[in-house]
Amino acid sequence: MKFIILGAIIVIHLVILGFLMGPCRSERKAAEAKPEEPAATVLDALPGPQAPPADPSAPASLAFGPRFYSESLATLPPELAKTAQECRVGIVVDWSARTVLWKKEDEKAVPIASLTKMMTVLLLMETLEKDPALTLETPVRVTKEAMGIGGREVWLDPHETFTLDELLKCTLIFSANDAAYLMGQFLAGGDCSVFVSRMNSRARELGLQHFTFHNPNGLPEGPKELENTGSARELSYLAGRLLDYPAVLKWSQTKFDTLASPRRKTPTMLTTTNKLLGTVPGVNGMKTGFTDDAGWCMAATCVRNGRTVIVVVTGCEEAKTRNGKAGRNALVAGLINWAYEQG
After folding, report:
1. Cystine design at 313: which of 90, 95, 119, 170 (Cβ 3.0–4.6 Å)?
2. Pairing of strands 89-94, 99-104
3. How large is the average pLDDT for residues 225-241?
4. Number of domains in the chain
5. Is residue 54 part of a domain?
């Protein structure tokens, strides 16, 4: 009898213990079966490419993609179409509607010369937005490397110091290669190659697949004279992005200014390379360029009655002639005026 009572007590305890432990064991097994979420990293907090805007009136601050533009292609008038044959690639965009009106091999990667500087300027603007320690009034000491940059220059001297705004002014008005180089070098902490890497990585982050940068200014780079390359479609996107920045528009639509320093007996004159300013109504930017391989290039922005049009052409009469420059200007002016006649 004693053993029967003892056995009954043991059974009761086992039942109670099974009741108490069963749910915990099930929950533990469920937890073990659930995949563990990856640990958060610093990179997770960084902004990556975003989807293109579904609404054409949405801000242009979103990443580029295949659906960023719609297309409503129209036929150029015969004379304008004949002139357009002289450019290698091109595009006309109604930026306000995110619509392509005309294109010519617009997704082909070609040499882009000083149109490169649009990416350099965009990275400057984005850095100023993110880094409270930097402003346009931040002083930048000229380096020996910047002084050695040739081509179109403002003759920077290592004994001089200029603000970021002054370097931006020289870059956008005069297309100064030494100023653009110094900006990039400064933003990269002294190593311009780091800045060039950032140019390429930022292009990919934005969804721009056709850019390859070798320097911040657009000159042929190194002994092999490597050219920076990009597509007309993606260059139009860069030009549109820069329209968001008042500091950029201030200088991109300035025809004349000066660069002064205590070491200069007289200020250096800065005359715009964009000869459409003041001659084609509404033009307010954005960048011109030339190398032997790139030909005469331009990314022009224009605003009339609240409607923004962007025209990009490269490879206009690929020869170092004044006719090439004049032909480029006439073509872009014609495409702008034609775009405003559409819809």
Report:
1. 90
2. antiparallel
3. 98
4. 1
5. no
